[in-house]
Amino acid sequence: MSQALSVPVDGMHCASCAMTIQKTLTKLNGVVDCQVNFGNEKAKITFDPDQTNLKDLNKAIEPFGYSLNLNGIDRLHKLEELNKQRNKLIFVLPITLMVFIIMIWEIAAQTFEGFPSFFIPMEIFQVILLIISTIILFWIGLDFLKEVVAFAKYKVANMYTLVGIGTLTAYLYSALIVLLPSLKTQLNLPEMVYFDVVIVVIGFIYFGKYLEARSKLRTGEAIEKLLNLQSKTALVEIDGKELKVLIENVKVGDLIIVKPGSKIPVDGIILEGKSSIDESMITGESMPIDKTINDKVIGGTINKYGAFKFLASKVGSETLLARIIQMVDEAQGSKAPIQGLADKISAIFVPIVLIISIITLLVWIIIGSQFLPFSQALSIALLCFVGVLVIACPCALGLATPTAIIVGTGKGAENGILIKNAESLEKLHKVNIIVTDKTGTITKGEPEVSDVSILNTFLNEREALKVLATLEKNSEHPIAKAILKKANLTEFYKVSDFEVIEGKGVKAIINDEEYFAGNFKLLEDLKIDFNTLEIDKYTNQGKTPVILANKNNSLAIVTVADALKDNSKSTIQKLHKLGIKIVMLTGDNKKTADYIAKEAGIDEVIAEVLPNEKANKIKELQSKNYVVAMIGDGINDAPALAQADIGIAMGSGTDIAIESAEITLLNGDFSKVLQAIKLSKFTMSAIKQNLFWAFAYNIIGIPIAAGLLYPFFGILLNPIFAGLAMALSSVSVVSNSLRLKRIKI
Ligand code: ADP
Ligand code: MG
Asked: Between β-strands 296-297 and 233-238, what pairing exists: parallel, antiparallel or unpaired?
């Protein structure tokens, strides 16, 4: 039996690191699968615990400078790391900026006549820079140098290797010039030194990495918020006394006391009292909800005014909140298909950049010296070599998709939209047809009896309702609830052999006689004649007739009507504007369904469908090249939800089948569908922007850094600007993803 674990990884710098770790671990004995995500810095490892363990896996990647964080306390740990980085920055940043300004000054002095030269003589200044750059390179830049060593030893490279090779080359060359002036004259080497490049590049990239890490931490804030919703203690009533108990020790069946203004600790059912409860933090529903005896409460929500006692029904990892947190965490770590290309490129990016940089160096020395004096060609060769190495940015490629996915799924969760994985979020924006259930999705799902009509003198109205209510007592269908409410009985007839006839109705034996309740299909099956006109009268008004019958006769018709939800119509209009077609799929009567569909503005109705045929209807639509989203309650419609490209479950209360659908809308609000689709569209466009910029940046940046523009326009990119660009590129990708937090969906 293999086991799947999601483990935080330390020491990753870019997408290449993720690929290296992934490749290394996948090759090991006992590892079935491994996915490393640079976005949330976690590795999802499926392995056989009999053959290997996390310690061994860790050993395999340690030589490359990575480690699995087996303690799992990753956020605190990252904050600590960030603090350390910030302390170093307080020292590095002012120096970097000073040197940067002096460099600009020097460039200006060389370019504009009359611009005064810098006030410290170059010879002294060079020595000062030598000292500073030594400190910066071997202290701040140590991580880069380590990767150069790892590269020499193991032939694995990442973004830090590139920066390391670039800055080390610039440093060594410059040190040679300053320390061995005789060699310089002997070899006719250029006068230029590049200490400033070393300092500024390392300073900027270090700063960029710091900003990137900080923003990345912010992308994960949604889960942090959810975690903070969990209460630490609960007030439990034990032998009539109130006792404060740690949340870990609360058991199913405990009687829990909730005071006004306090947090509900776990999921349960109210036994005593009533109150108004703010569930916005979980379901995204902004209005407080009135709750009383027998109503369900959700752990993590806030009790407003009243006081009540409830029976704990779900605790620990079983609570809705715990399941949501787990789902969001998994979704944030999952990979979107759109990331595939970026991943493939990341895997070969660093070696390719290394090769390009070496070609650049050689071309400038060999071919450049044909046209330019050797010392000038060498100086350009060095500048371009370093420039290519420090401008190449695999991190932007690696961050483009995952950061947007993390923010997108997090934002969804804050709005009561739970997304199972990145792939679902990606697919959702392509949906062009939404198939919806009727009851409870488009309509309120709380049908009420509107007419009772007696067809046969065999039973009077009171008796007919009592027989019906007795029949429906054991049914879960909303129709049954409506009938029971109307009958309003405390005592029923004796009933046995209750059976559900799928998609048609119910039957049972009452007082030794077999009774049926259901739709006209049921009557057809029973070969009982009925008055079609009578039924049409109701269906034409959008009501669902339920016919009570015994073996031989129809006895009564009771009609049930379910009002449209307030926002169904407006939501459907907005979905139409997005170019999405809406289809209603129901087991109900065609005429009833048509009436409601017309009222709601639905495009097409597929009615009188038996539950087991629903999935086939979805398949038919898919074969017409529609990308189908199916909305249902997630319990009865499971096969259809599974068949659809995107299954959207509408939940309410705590009985939410989160795991059954790609997307779960927590407060059973149809308008959330629109929000979910918008979220998907915004997230996908952020990803596409990110990927575009990340690719464009590298495709344009590398040739410019290589000096391609010099022969034509005389433009050379100083490596300090390459370093600056590199620092900005990944920061801007993460910032663009963070922008998703503020958009209105
Ligand atoms: P849907 O979820 O679209 O309403 P169902 O398969 O649940 O589809 O039900 C289809 C039809 O079967 C209902 O419209 C109703 O006419 C009949 N039916 C189902 N359950 C019952 C019930 N408990 N009592 C009476 N009629 C029922
Ligand atoms: Mg149903």
From this structure: unpaired
Angle between helices 568-577 and 590-600 (to 10 degrees): 70
290 carries an active-site annotation = no
If you ran DSSP here, which 8-state letter would residue 493 be given? -
Please report the beta strands in 197-265, taking only residues with DSSP state E, as ranges in sequence order. 233-238, 241-246, 255-258
Sheet bearing 289-291, strands edge to edge: 289-291, 275-278, 302-303
Atom of ligand 1 nearest to the CA of 589: 14
User: How many Å apart are CA 77 and CA 398, to the nearest integer?
Assistant: 22
pTM: 0.84
Residue matched to tokens 């009865």? 636
Ligand 1 pocket test target in 435, 441, 471, 504 with most atoms within 8 Å of CB: 504
Three-state helix/strand/coil letters over 502-520 = CCCEEEEEECCEEEEEECH
Sheet holding 604-606, edge to edge: 417-419, 663-665, 646-650, 628-632, 433-436, 581-585, 604-606
With H, G, I as helix, E, B as strand and everything else as coil, classify residue 52.
coil
- Residue pLDDT, tens place only, 579-619: 999 999 998 889 999 999 999 999 999 999 988 899 999 99
Spatial contact of 482 and 489, defined as CB atoms under 8 Å apart = no
Give residue-wise pLDDT tens across range 278-293: 988 888 777 898 999 9
Which ligand 1 atom sits nearest the alpha carbon of residue 480?
23
Residues 6+ apart with CB under 8 A from 123: none
What is the C-alpha R_g of the chain? 34
